[in-house]
């Protein structure tokens, strides 16, 4: 059985080869939309179902000022994306991140590669002191990943978002560079 025929759990066993991390391009809109519409990817985000290529294209064509938008590429396929947005004014020392990994590639190092690139950018290029994020309380793999990179839970946001017919809580987590 080749990897295309394998069950998702079989495809996820073990680490994968080197993942290329690069800046997202406007030409990535279709691939990013495809993974954003996967049920597992979407469940960890605030995205609605049925995201259109046009919505993604607009986001890629007009990123927020100073935003860093990355993709993870494996064997020519986009398997994840992540972003870092620096805040302004009295919170200019803060960056907010968001990320997601293709359903078939979770637990295989893609998220670690994306997060490492974001943290390196925040620490070594932007002098960001505080990186923060929110994560659903039932997303244990993501929470473990963030903790591995030094994020700590700072609070619980009750009824944070409406997902799949119910309100779900989220943790607010941050990593401080002292």
From TrEMBL:
PANTHER family per the UniProt record, alphabetical: ACETYLTRANSFERASE, SPERMIDINE N(1)-ACETYLTRANSFERASE
Organism: Rhizobium lusitanum
Domain N-acetyltransferase, chain residue ranges per copy: 19-174
InterPro entries (alphabetical): Acyl_CoA_acyltransferase, GNAT_dom
The protein's name: Putative acetyltransferase
CDD domains the UniProt entry points to: NAT_SF
Keywords attached to this entry: Transferase
Keyword Transferase: yes
Pfam family membership, one: Acetyltransf_1
GO molecular function, one term: acyltransferase activity, transferring groups other than amino-acyl groups
């Amino acid at each position: 059985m080749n990897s295309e025929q394998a069950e998702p759990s079989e495809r996820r066993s073990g680490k994968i080869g080197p993942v290329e991390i690069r800046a997202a391009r406007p030409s990535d809109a279709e691939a990013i939309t495809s993974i954003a519409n996967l049920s597992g990817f979407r469940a960890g985000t605030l995205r609605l179902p049925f995201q259109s290529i046009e919505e993604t294209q607009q986001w890629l064509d007009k990123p927020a000022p100073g935003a860093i938008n990355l993709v993870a590429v494996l064997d020519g396929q986009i398997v994840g994306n992540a972003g870092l947005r620096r805040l302004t004014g009295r919170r200019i020392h803060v960056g907010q991140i968001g990320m997601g990994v293709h359903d078939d590639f979770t637990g295989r190092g893609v998220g670690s590669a994306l997060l490492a690139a974001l943290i390196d950018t925040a620490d070594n290029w932007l002098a960001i002191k505080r990186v923060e994020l929110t994560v659903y309380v039932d997303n244990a793999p993501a929470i473990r990943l963030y903790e591995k990179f030094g994020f700590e839970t700072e609070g619980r946001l009750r009824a944070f978002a409406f997902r799949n017919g119910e309100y779900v809580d989220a943790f607010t987590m941050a990593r401080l560079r002292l």
